[in-house]
């Protein structure tokens, strides 16, 4: 019977445990270039040495393979990323339904995604590796030492006998390892990435404190470069690799109106290969590598990537994926990431005449969730420092202050804004208390009191439970740069309209700025109006806008719809249902 990660009762706690580890630093091993000298080998480094010796595989190759696929991380029984890889050797046991929920919907049939993932040998290598070392698959998913042994055994099995005598001679074995025994174009793409790591070397420390070193090696295999040029600013290291899934279009100025940032969901090298694979069912216009800020373009700006849950947003946006592995919404991002993202955002904003503000530069966690989603996307997450990005953009995080404005913009200092945080695998269950953390959000309450419950989002808590400090419970949080209409003021407290409710926060110096913004409110005579996650879909069953409430107008869309700031992010209303006020 095929190993099914959903059957493990320890899965939730494993995810939480890994999240706690990752919350202490940048997700995954940091750094790409090997240092001149290294400290004594860590236990995990020694495990790689032992496994390489036991199965007669080159240790540098084993390290490069693990780095490209999993950043040497061990999630202790939980998948290391959205592709269902387990342990440092990224042995896969993908769940087709879970994978389908992680990709942008609307362009593909979910049943075909599930069928493709469940029958793809590259997504199910854990059982084959387990058989080689005569151990249960479940043990390999949670035991790093045995996972490394099994990965080495699997790589050796693809090399055959006698073993290759040079590193370059192992190229096909690496391609078969990542291709589930078959050398596909996607497998070659990922094997190329492994050999790129091998040539450059890498060093870093994993989330659980394992110091790892890979010295650069003189390998030549997989070094061919794409002949196509990328659409990037001068001075940014950038290449082009064609995505398999996207919609051809001829978009230009006025049609590309938003820039959306989100996690790649898997290490950079693996993300590039997955997007280039027709079986990936997802894409981004760009990916940014954490270690050095390298950028890969995968979809031309004129075309539409499958990046967000809303086809309407995809049609008007460019998606930028950020290198990550594990940690969910508490991933820390490297300075190289911020620097490259800022250069890319500046270039794209100038190219497409997009305003440099938070109403046009969005996080994927601010976009409407897919229909039927258990919880909204949570990337780039609570630790993405919007203020730092906009400082690098030489642009203000919020509009100028205006004493006559009817809205407020949240502008908390990331360094000073600490909030109590839980991280849960599912809202309200299996939660780890992370204490107070630097985050980009401010919590909102149902009444002007520090003891009042947090707002309850009916989409996240359909049973009506109060909101929580879970970092992924987005229904009670206002994020840096977001603008909200003021609903009421009392001594020391302000309420804003938030997802159909008043959300209260305690006033504090430097927390908000009073601003002008165009606002929409239900047209005269309408008691309430519908809210949509996508113009092509039905009204959202949990949300309405009642008469007297106001929300920021962010843009007009074809078909008679307006995009508004709503709840933690954005939503759509019919243009004919609203009146617009100057704010």
What can you see in these coordinates?
- There is one protein chain.
- By secondary structure, the chain is of the alpha+beta class.
- The chain has 3 domains: 5-214, no CATH class; 225-395, Peptidoglycan recognition protein-like (Lysozyme-like), CATH 3.40.80.10; 397-583, no CATH class.
- Helices cover 25% and strands 23% of the residues.
- It has 14 helices and 28 strands.
- Strands 5-9-8-11-7-12 form a 6-stranded mixed beta sheet, sandwiched between helices. It has a 5-stranded antiparallel beta sheet with strand order 20-19-18-13-21, with no helix packed on it. Strands 27-26-25-22-28 form a 5-stranded antiparallel beta sheet, with no helix packed on it.
- It starts with 10 loop residues before the first helix and ends with a strand.
Percent helix: 25-40%
Task: State the domain count.
Answer: 3
Portion in strands:
15-25%
End-to-end Cα distance, whole Å, is 61 Å
In angstroms, what is the radius of gyration?
24 Å
SS elements, strand count: 28
* Poorly predicted segments: 6-28
Order of strands in the sheet with most strands: 5-9-8-11-7-12
The main β sheet shows up as: 6 strands, mixed
Shape: elongated
- Based on secondary structure, the structural category is alpha+beta
SS field, number of helical segments: 14
What would the keywords be for this entry?
alpha+beta, single chain, six-stranded mixed sheet, five-stranded antiparallel sheet, 583 residues, Lysozyme-like, 3 domains
